[in-house]
Specification:
53 residues; four-stranded antiparallel β-sheet; 0% helix
């Protein structure tokens, strides 16, 4: 976990694609602070993650 002063505590997911692990590549704020309440229930991605529809 990490803590942001205005969003709160972030929790992380590791992703595995084609057998390769991408540690901490997704994160979410389970109970964000009031200033960031619009991100509750959302998951963010980074570290080379590409979302395809």
């Amino acid at each position: 976990t990490t803590v942001c002063s205005w969003k709160g505590t972030a929790n992380y997911y590791d992703l595995r694609v084609a057998g390769e692990k991408n540690s901490g590549a997704a994160w979410y704020y389970a109970t964000p602070k009031d200033a960031a309440k619009n991100i509750a229930g959302r998951v963010a991605f980074w570290r080379g993650v590409e979302i395809l529809e």
